């Protein structure tokens, strides 16, 4: 950014199926690192960054990247809160939000195919979110035919429940990398525990690579991920538990 270098002599490799926690305080470059990966920071195309085996800026489109990347962030959460606000006369259900992950859209504009619907239902079941996404008292036969018919409105869910829905949204397209930017921000202690427990279950049953970015040191122990990247002021990597760097 102008004369300021956020990262200097920074090298980091994340391999398939690895689980990482990136931890650091304010001003250590956590958001910049996330944006370099997702493409939100255009300077990522001027650096020596390889994503999914291909150097960024070598002709790939942003959609090529998004197909392989599942993201949860405060920005995405806020976009969906604004979009689902009933004052805009939209009825955005939890089912809509989950299915929108198939298309990387805010809102559901294309009806999923039967194959896509089956994949979505599989992920809802896999994460144990049937009652949250489909509805607590939904008849099983009806759910099989029209799982969205009694899905609760996303806007009316609690903050913690919304985060769980967004996690399911990120996974329905079977991404190669799941990137979580401060996903427990604003959650109560119990809801934070629920979210991290679900993430642990996902890590144990999926081959997806996971990067969780946080400022909370206690989440290192709570998750038990084997790889930790610590960032200090000026964004320099200070220590890591993995030989991948």
Automatic annotation (TrEMBL):
Keyword Nucleotide-binding: yes
Keyword entries, A-Z: ATP-binding, Nucleotide-binding
Name of the protein: ModF protein
Gene: modF
GO MF annotation terms: ATP binding; ATP hydrolysis activity
Entry-linked PROSITE patterns: ABC_TRANSPORTER_1, ABC_TRANSPORTER_2
Domain ABC transporter as annotated: residue spans: 1-242
Domain of life of the native organism: Eukaryota
InterPro entries: AAA+_ATPase, ABC_transporter-like_ATP-bd, ABC_transporter-like_CS, P-loop_NTPase
């Amino acid at each position: 950014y102008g004369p300021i270098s956020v990262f200097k002599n920074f090298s980091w490799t994340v391999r398939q199926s690895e689980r990482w926690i990136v931890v650091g305080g304010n001003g250590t470059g956590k958001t910049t690192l996330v944006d370099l990966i997702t493409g939100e920071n255009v300077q990522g195309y001027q650096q020596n960054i390889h994503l999914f085996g291909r150097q960024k800026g070598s002709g790939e489109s942003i959609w090529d990247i998004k197909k392989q990347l599942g993201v949860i962030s405060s920005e995405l959460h806020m976009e969906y809160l604004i979009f689902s606000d009933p004052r805009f006369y939209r009825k955005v259900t939890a089912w809509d939000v989950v299915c929108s992950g198939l298309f990387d859209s805010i809102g559901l504009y294309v009806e999923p195919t039967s194959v896509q619907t089956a994949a979505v239902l599989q992920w809802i079941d896999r994460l144990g979110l049937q009652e949250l996404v489909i509805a607590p008292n939904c008849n099983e036969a009806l759910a099989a035919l029209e799982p969205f018919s009694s899905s609760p409105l996303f806007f009316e869910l609690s903050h913690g429940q919304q985060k769980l829905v967004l996690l399911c949204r990120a996974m329905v397209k079977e991404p190669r990398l799941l990137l979580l930017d401060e996903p427990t921000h604003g959650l109560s202690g119990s809801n934070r525990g629920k979210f991290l427990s679900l993430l642990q279950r996902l890590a144990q049953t999926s081959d997806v690579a996971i990067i969780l970015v946080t400022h909370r040191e206690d989440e290192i122990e709570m998750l038990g991920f084997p790889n930790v990247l610590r960032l200090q002021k000026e964004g320099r990597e200070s220590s890591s538990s993995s030989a991948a760097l």
